[in-house]
Amino acid sequence: MTLSQRLYRASAWAFPAIAVAVALILSFLIDPYLAFLGASWVIFGLLGLSLDIVWGRGGFLSLGQTAFFGLGGYLGAIAAVNLGPLIGNTLLPTLPIAALIGGLCAGVLGSLIFFARMGPLQATILSYTFTLLLWSVTQSLKFTVGAAVVGGDNGMSGIPGMVIGFGEGARPLAPNGVFAVCVIVAALAYFATLALMRSTFGRVVDCIRLDIQKTELLGHDVRRVQVANMAWAGAVAGLAGGLFALWSNYLNPSLFSVQEALLPPIYVLVGGLGTLAGPFVGALAIGGLSFWLGGGAAGGQTTLILGVVLVLLVLFLRNGILGALDQLWRRFLPDPNAAARDAGEVRINVNDLDLILREAEAQVGPAKPMATDQAFKQFGGVIPVNKVSRSFVPGRPMALIGPNGAGKSSYLKTCVGVYQPEGGQVTIGDTDVTHAPIFCRVRLGMGVKNQKPQVFGALSVYDNLWTAAYARTRDKAKASDVAGRILAMLGMTAQSGVEAQALSHGQQQWLDIGMVLCVAPRVVLLDEPAAGMTNKETRELSLLVRTLARHTTVVVVEHDMEFVRTLEGHVTVLHQGEVFAEGDIDSLRADERVLDIYLGRRQHV
Amino acid sequence: MEADFLATVLLSSLSSASILLIATIGLAVVFGLMGVINLAHGEFLMIGAYTALTATQAGVPYLLSIPIAVAVTMAIGALVEVLIISRLYGRIFDTMLATWGISIAFYQLAVLTFGTVSPGIGMPQISVQIGDYSLALYPLLMNVVALLMLGFVYLLMTRSVYGMKARASIQVPEMARAIGISSSRVNTLTFALGCGLAGFAGAVLLPIVPATPSMGFAFVIKAFLTVVVAGPVTLTGSALAAIGLGGGASVTASFLTSVAGDAFFFIVTALLLWRFPLGISARWRRKL
């Protein structure tokens, strides 16, 4: 590995560490006014970081970050006013309370949004109106807590400055000291966030952004992860609010204004979405620019300029400063996706597969049957699933066939949990899962491969498999072992470091199947797995499905008759949402009624 | 509680709901037909109000100033669509951020041009007497205006060639393009129409809501929440949501404070979204 490659890999912590060191040295050298302004840039960078966590990583554009910032500021300031005189130090009472309040409010709002599974537009608008609501509420809200007076639109004044000493004699820090404190707090928050995002939690957060349904199909309760991520982001915003209160000594409702809410998205877009360090660069760039232009923090035209800047950023600079640098640098690094181009055809190693399946059986128990009893699903006047009772058992593949519109996919979606049936029952093993969310069914042993390949495009092939394996094993070493063996079994070892999105369509299908195997399911549901595969690949797939069916229950929905024949399994024909016929493929092929509905002739149509 | 007091509260709440509906329809049309939330909607309302105000100050009769306001906001809307929105199709969050930037820029432009306070327009105050209470006539008139607006949009969507094309484009975009509907032109028209409806709202509400640069922000909270609660079915959904939420908030506000009304609005919206995460009309079979 070259120096450039090593440096690139370490860039997320090495460059910020250098920046922090430089900032701390500068804090002794720069003049107090610049230090005063610089501290605000760092605080706003921290606010931007909170948005980057929830938007750049979590994939949810929250316009409520300034609300958590403001709430953290207000509550932190109340603590500082009351507790500061008692102990001397103002940072200790203020910052934890500010972070706690920010995290709590974000957690509550996030629970509402994510547990209801709101649409993205609805969620964004709700967070925006939350901020606007606080803006109007705080205008007239007047109350007193101990020595702290919150005075509606007169704001809250008399907030003490930053004091790091204790006892009576402790004095507030000079601007240069305040700047240094802000840099240290922001650095701690940044490195803690970086560690979090590089942990398995952060991996799941990334997966949710890339493909939320697939993440849930791996058995993750995505809602909890989303809420936790949002709460962390809220805590970072609250922390920034606490710093802001001690920095400005005065707060008023304009913290919740639209002008204020506009700032975090601008910082994130200028610096680079999803980079974590970007918002600091963005805040520095915007702050430095307005300082250089002489507008100061609240110049008359600043709002106008910021509005126009936001429009221009969205139109022309999608990746921001750090994103652009990243692309430039990557051009000089070896292409990790080069291996995708000389990938050969997939060949399944059946012995390996058999061994993997045996081990999985030893670890997670025997195959489970899946059954539906009188399952019923209705969309208005259309009934795609009409009282289907079916039981799927291990031993040999169970195929579902039927002409277009027979209700195959709807039936499968009812089994998976995408559709909630209006009547009847779905069971996995002995457990009733009729109304269970998808991830619960996965934890009970369900594995699903949808028609389109679902892989996490920005992750490498190995990381895709590892993530799936970790979702089951919850153990890094075991996950590495499983992922490595599935990789070898698929014969994709050479493509291990390739980004999944660089793979061909067929290879993505195999990777997806590999991920399903990593979860060690006891019931496997495959929706048209042979779609878009070559003849040779279809033969390999048939081999895989037959091997799989010896150890688990396998349900295959398929159009391709030839493929179904090679499976040598049990076949159920669906027609107009009902079970029409069943048996093995040869007897069904001889059945005139089945031919009738497939060819669309005579009375059964 | 007296019957005349109840009647007054009920009538004024109905007026509030109608005012909300008037301010929301433009937003709902753009959301329903383009899938985009125009965060600058409130500022188009503000532009409509200022246009009508400037026109009346220049001697134009008030009634004539309303079509002028509509024309101005439609023109600006079309310009914004062609210059900015059309470059961002399929990127809903970017569209939202861009309209947000436009919103704040328009707001600041209004502050720079008109200052933060504006004179109202002189309208003869006519009141209706109900028992011991009297109600201003103009807000009551808004019920009729809201109904007329609903009727207009309904006819436009069902009877005009544009309406057919717009509905076709949103239901099956590929098919609409395949039969030769230029979806970008339809979108420009839709966005301009939404902005024109906002301008109309700003002008027609001018006697009740004086023009200020920040009037947009005051309206949009409720308008946004109404639209997301309503969901994709533009007319029926918005009307239902506006009557329920706006009326409810107004009743709350008349018994408690106006901030309580706002809070009621937000909380009920959150609860409704909890029950219907994609809006109340997401599963309806009717599409208008």
Give a description of the structure.
- The complex is a heterodimer of chains A (605) and B (288).
- Chain A has 605 residues and is of the alpha/beta class.
- Helix content of chain A is 59%, strand content 11%.
- Chain A folds into two domains: 3-330, Orthogonal Bundle (ABC transporter involved in vitamin B12 uptake, BtuC); 350-599, Rossmann fold (3-Layer(aba) Sandwich), CATH 3.40.50.300.
- Chain A has helices at residues 3-29, 32-57, 65-87, 91-115, 120-140, 175-198, 200-210, 212-217, 222-248, 258-261, 263-271, 278-293, 302-316, 320-330, 338-341, 350-364, 408-416, 438-443, 461-473, 476-490, 505-518, 535-551, 561-567, 585-589, 592-599, and strands at residues 142-145, 148-151, 370-379, 382-392, 398-401, 423-428, 431-432, 446-449, 523-527, 553-557, 570-575, 578-584.
- In chain A, helix 6 (175-198) packs across helix 7 and helix 7 (200-210) crosses helix 9.
- Chain A is elongated.
- Chain B has 288 residues and is mainly α.
- Chain B has one domain (3-213).
- Chain B has helices spanning 3-34, 41-57, 62-83, 92-114, 137-159, 161-171, 173-178, 183-204, 215-230, 234-255, 258-275, and strands spanning 127-130, 133-136.
- Chain B has a two-stranded antiparallel ribbon.
- Chain B is globular and about 65 Å long.
- The chains are: A alpha/beta (605), B mainly alpha (288).
- The A-B interface holds A 61, 112, 116-122, 124-126, 128-130, 132-133, 135-137, 140, 258-259, 262, 265, 269, 300-301, 303-304, 306-311, 314-315, 380 and B 37, 39, 84, 87-88, 92-94, 96-98, 100-109, 112, 217-218, 220-221, 224-225, 227-228, 259, 262-263, 266, 269-270, 273-275, 277-279, 285.
